[in-house]
Design a protein that fits this description.
Blueprint lengths: L1 E15 L25 E8 L4 E4 L2 E5 L6 E5 L2 E8 L5 E8 L3 E15 L6 E4 L3 E3 L3 E8 L12 E7 L4 E4 L5 E5 L6 E10 L9 E10 L9 E7 L3 H17 L4 E9 L9 H15 L7 E9 L3 E7 L11
Parallel strand pairs: 2-8, 10-16, 18-19
Antiparallel strand pairs: 1-8, 2-5, 3-4, 3-6, 6-7, 9-11, 11-14, 12-15, 13-14, 15-16, 17-20, 18-20
């Protein structure tokens, strides 16, 4: 990290002029005869190196300084404020007492000083080598600079996370972020941090990247539970079996009741159709046994010799029963 600083090396001088007829330069050597000094004036000569600079007298710009030789300005006797505008906004300022027939010389040498210091921040990013899918992964940037480190709030943190569907849940703009790994199984999260402080030059800027592998979690398949299966006999017999389902749902408040109705092909089943018994079962379970209708589902299956109930208990996360043909 380099800092530049400019200082003025100043030389002031006085000399008596040789007479009223002596010729003086006015700051620009145009190859023509030099202008004569006006009567009743003194001379201000300004020379700067390595470059010409703007000269002001009493707040007014009077011209540019000379480089190879001094630029001369004719001023009325008295005290004048002389200002010379240097680099980086620095200004040399001095009150000069101008005396008739006296030449005042100002010579400025601009000295550039470069200083080198260690960067006030040296970041390290830490994060897990691997996580399981669905876990939250946290990445932290720490300043380990050997010099007095800057406070975390003095730095600007720009995080970039890939793949694009990796979701940052918190911390953007700070020195720590958290990433949700849901849906990222068997993939790699790449986290890149760009750190600056807005003051020091680009040599202190840092870009750091870390990678974290995401292990896919195989979710076990939960099968539905076949609770009961029976051919319809009569409404009373059917109610007794439906009572058992209602009790089981009461004992398992998070489970769903799933009934598959199979239409019979015999003569008796022509009266006790699957459609009619589906309505009968739903009305009985909801109106008589008080089962929440949102916990029940009744669907049509294939065919059997006699119209048949197939009752399932479906725990949370279990697959849906599939009717048999």
């Amino acid at each position: 990290m380099k800092n530049r600083r400019f200082n003025f090396l100043v030389i002031l001088g006085l000399m008596l002029t040789l007479g009223l007829s002596t010729a003086f330069a006015n700051g620009v050597n145009d190859g023509k005869k030099k202008k004569k000094r006006p009567k009743n004036t003194g001379v201000l000569s300004v020379q700067t190196t390595p470059n010409a600079m703007t000269v002001k007298v009493d707040g007014q710009v009077v011209g540019q300084s000379g480089v190879t030789e001094g630029a001369e300005f004719f001023l009325t006797p008295g005290v004048h404020l002389v200002e010379i505008e240097g680099p980086n906004g620095k200004t040399f300022s001095k009150e000069i007492n101008i005396v008739k027939n006296v030449k005042n010389c100002i010579c400025l040498d601009v000295v550039e000083k470069k200083t080198t210091r260690p960067c006030p921040y040296d970041m390290r990013v830490s994060g897990p080598d691997s996580v399981q899918e669905g876990d939250l992964a946290t990445f932290v940037a720490t300043n380990v600079a050997s010099v007095t480190p800057l406070a975390a709030s003095a730095l600007t943190y720009a995080w970039r996370v890939t793949p694009s569907d990796a979701r940052v849940t918190s911390g953007l703009g700070t020195n720590s972020i958290t990433v949700d790994t849901t849906g990222l199984g068997n993939r790699t999260i790449s986290v890149e941090l760009d750190v600056t402080d807005g003051v020091y030059d680009a040599s202190c800027r840092q870009r750091i990247a870390v990678n974290t592998g995401v292990t896919k979690v195989e979710i076990p398949v939960i099968p539905p539970l076949l609770f009961d299966e029976f051919p319809t006999l009569s409404n009373d017999d059917d109610k007794a079996r439906l009572d058992n389902l209602a009790i089981e749902l009461q004992n398992n408040p998070n489970a769903q009741g799933y009934i598959i109705m199979y239409q019979g092909t015999d003569r008796r089943s022509q009266r006790r159709t699957s459609e009619r018994l589906s309505k009968f079962a739903l009305d009985y379970l909801v109106k008589t046994r008080g089962v929440d209708p949102s916990r029940l589902q009744i669907v049509r299956g294939g065919s059997r010799t006699t119209t048949t109930y197939q009752m399932w208990l479906v725990p949370p996360g279990a697959t849906t029963p599939v009717p048999n043909e």
